[in-house]
Design brief:
By secondary structure, the protein is an alpha/beta fold. The protein has helices at about 5-15, 20-30, 65-75, 80, 115-125, 145-160, 170-180; strands at about 35-40, 55-60, 85, 100-105, 125-140, 180-190, 200-210. The structure holds S-adenosylmethionine. S-adenosylmethionine binds near residues 40, 90, 92, 107 and 112.
């Protein structure tokens, strides 16, 4: 593996994480029961889980990044650490049973996975009908900011290279809705502390859209 990906990128992730504690606290406080965190990275969310957590399946495909998450896990109080299971796997093929999760967390990951629609189809499969999808993502600028849209489009190729596949301009809210989820709450705004090109964010809670017309 190249040294940038193995050593430098995980450090950059840790450094950037410091600016997001407010959003992480707010989002992760809602997690309960059997929880999946997609692309858990270096474990930046682990310390925010409450006692409502039963098990956290922290899925991460990148082994050096996962090794850092394991060190973070080991530093937690034992009762909290014991609830966390790290899984090295790809979000496009979740090694989890159908309808088995109360909460799925997408935190700065749908910007990076190669096929967000496919990942969300997997989330749809594994989440319980009454489960919740918690989302914190940076997204494409709205059409009322055409200059920012233009900069995101221009800078995307170089950003993608240095941010290990992360895309600046994904319409993530729409992709989630097209995958069969409806937001019950959503904040669609600019993050005051992020660089401008990654400042458009969404923070919200979505549920599965119930199948209509199915006779019991
Ligand atoms: C920007 S980092 C965010 C990490 C963490 N969620 C956080 O909030 O700090 C994106 C993460 O997505 C992971 N990722 C990339 N491709 C993935 C895939 N196909 N399935 C699951 N996770 C993936 C990366 O390895 C990385 O850890």
């Amino acid at each position: 593996m190249n040294p940038y990906r193995q050593w430098i990128f995980p450090c950059l992730l840790d450094w950037a994480s410091g600016k997001m504690d407010k959003e992480r606290t707010e989002l992760i406080a809602l997690a309960c029961g059997q929880v999946l965190e997609l692309g858990a990275g270096t474990g930046a969310n682990f310390r925010f889980y409450s006692e409502k957590l039963d098990t956290l399946w922290a899925l991460e495909p990148d082994l050096p990044v996962m090794a850092r998450a394991e060190r973070v896990r080991q530093q937690l109080p034992t009762a909290q650490a014991d609830k966390i299971q790290l899984i090295c796997a790809d979000g496009h093929h979740l090694p989890l049973a159908d309808n088995s999760l109360d909460t799925v967390i997408c935190c700065l990951v749908l910007c990076t996975v190669p096929d967000p629609g496919r990942v969300l189809a997997e989330v749809h499969r594994v989440i319980k009908p009454e489960g919740q999808l918690l989302v914190f993502e940076h997204v494409a600028a709205n059409s009322d900011s055409p200059r920012l849209q233009d900069w995101q489009r221009r800078l995307n190729p170089i950003w993608r290279t240095f941010a290990c596949g992360c895309e600046l301009n994904r319409p993530t809210r729409e992709t989630i809705e097209q995958a069969g989820f409806r937001f019950e709450q959503i904040r669609d705004e600019r993050h005051p502390d992020f660089p401008r090109i990654v400042s458009p964010i969404i923070l919200g809670v979505a549920h599965l859209i119930p199948l209509e017309g199915v006779e019991g």
